[in-house]
Structure formats: structure tokens, C-alpha cells
Amino acid sequence: MSQKHTPGPWEIRIEGTGSGRSPVIVDPNNTCTDGSNVEIAELPTTEVNPRGEGWVTSDDGPEWREEIEANAALIAAAPELLEAAIDFVNKVETGRARSKDSYAKFKAAIKKATP
Question: Is residue 93 a contact partner of residue 111, using CB atoms and an 8 Å limit?
Fold first, then answer.
């Protein structure tokens, strides 16, 4: 399988201050010419909320902030989740599906995705 995405691991950084704070997903192993990490994704402080109820800002309450930060954690865990899934599928296809290693990879990725 060829992977065309930026290799992991990815990390969450919080940028900005006050109500303008937003989670940014970065590649900690890659830097720009200014020394900052390469951004994978940014979750703005203002976005359409997932339930289709209009725009969300940090003033809408902690439940929206928690949801935005949970989304960032899930995105940051994507490389590990993909790696664990590929590893498991490969082991199933070769008759080695009882691997504790695959289980451990999934557990670690799930923990990262659900802080």
C-alpha cells in the first residue's frame, strides 16, 4: 500500500490566545524555514458545528471547545490508527491475526484519539 499523506506521528499544538485559541495539527519532525513545524491541519475557533446548528465560536461554551479539541485529537491520531489497521489486515491475511502487537498498536492509537 502506498501512503501519500504526511507520515506521522502528528501532534496537537494550541495557537493563539484567549477566545482566538485554536488547535493546530503539526508534524513535529518537519520544520519550515522559519523554524516552525509543518502544519497538517488547523481547527479554527470559528467553524460550522458538526450538528449543523450554525457557526461555533469559543464563546458558545465549553462543550463546543471540548468537541473541537476532541476532533483535533482524532485527526492527530490518524497516522497511528491507519498504521494499526494496515498491520492488523496484513496479519489477518497471512494467518497471524492473534498478535498482541496489533492489539497494542490499536490500544495506543485509540488512547491518543480519545484523550
Answer: no
For 49-106, the DSSP string reads: -TTSSSEE-GGG-HHHHHHHHHHHHHHHTHHHHHHHHHHHHHHHHTT-TT-HHHHHHH
**What is the reported pTM?**
0.64
Burial (CB count within 10 angstroms: exposed 0-12, middle 13-18, buried 19+), residue 35 = exposed
Helix (H, G, I), strand (E, B) or coil at 109: helix
> Where along the chain do its domains lie?
10-76, 78-115
- Side chain identity, residue 80: E
Is the torsion defined by CA of 65, 115, 15, 83 positive or negative? negative
pLDDT tens track for 19-65: 566 777 878 887 888 887 788 887 765 555 555 555 555 555 566 66
